[in-house]
Specification:
Number of strands: 10
Strand order of the largest sheet: 1-4-5-2-3
Largest sheet: 5 strands, mixed
CATH class of the largest domain: Alpha Beta
CATH superfamily of the largest domain: Translation initiation factor 3 (IF-3), N-terminal domain
Shape: rod-shaped
Oligomer: single chain
Strand content: 25-35%
Order of helices and strands: HEEEHEEHEHEHEEE
Distance between the termini: 66 Å
Number of domains: 2
Length: about 190
């Protein structure tokens, strides 16, 4: 009986360790060369050719011989698939993918510009310049027009005009939303 709890604990610790490794790979950290703890790997060569299942040590030797890095692409299968990648390009490729995903998400801050439907031309030009400057610096812009009474159509027309004038700096993320006391539209950087 005494051996059973110990073996269950070992199994539990092993499961936690593999979960931690999986989370590291999923979070964008690549396992490279000696960081890979598996005894066997499914190896793919520099040109995409399959080299089969090899021991970890033999795969590392092949990587050193080819002056490449051994990169684990997923820990979800056994043996984990790994590939040979030219030195340093794995990290550069991951950084490039992270940068592209951040741009797609539009991770810049959302800046709000408030207007009224009865805005003067000079004030409109100032708000237009501010919005263009924010969009050009990579921020998202939320254009909000405060409404009172029956100014809804006037506010919508103002936002349509602003979106058309800002088409060179950004694009609409949402349609024009009319709700109670305000009309709003969100713009993404171009």
């Amino acid at each position: 009986m005494q051996g059973e709890p110990a073996s269950l604990m070992q199994v539990w610790e092993g499961m936690n360790a593999s979960t931690e490794r999986n989370e590291r790979v999923m979070s964008g950290k690549l396992l490279i060369n000696e960081q890979i703890k598996s005894s066997e790997v499914l190896l793919t060569g520099l040109n995409g050719e399959s080299l089969g299942v090899l021991s970890h040590q033999k795969a590392l030797a092949l990587a050193k011989e080819a002056k490449a890095d051994l990169v684990c692409t997923s820990l979800m299968s056994s043996p984990p698939p790994c590939k040979l990648v030219s030195r340093g390009s794995a990290k550069a490729q991951r950084d490039q993918e992270n940068k592209e995903s951040r741009l797609k998400e539009g991770s810049g801050k959302v800046k709000e510009l408030r207007l009224t439907p009865d805005i003067e031309d000079h004030d409109y030009d100032t708000k237009l310049r501010q919005a263009a400057k924010l969009l050009d610096s990579g921020n998202r812009v939320l254009l909000v027009v405060k409404i009172s009474g029956k100014e809804g159509p006037k506010a919508k027309a103002l936002l349509d005009r602003l979106v058309a004038d800002l088409s060179g700096s950004g694009k609409k993320a949402t349609g024009i939303q009319l709700s109670g006391k305000q009309a709003a539209v969100e713009m993404l950087p171009a």
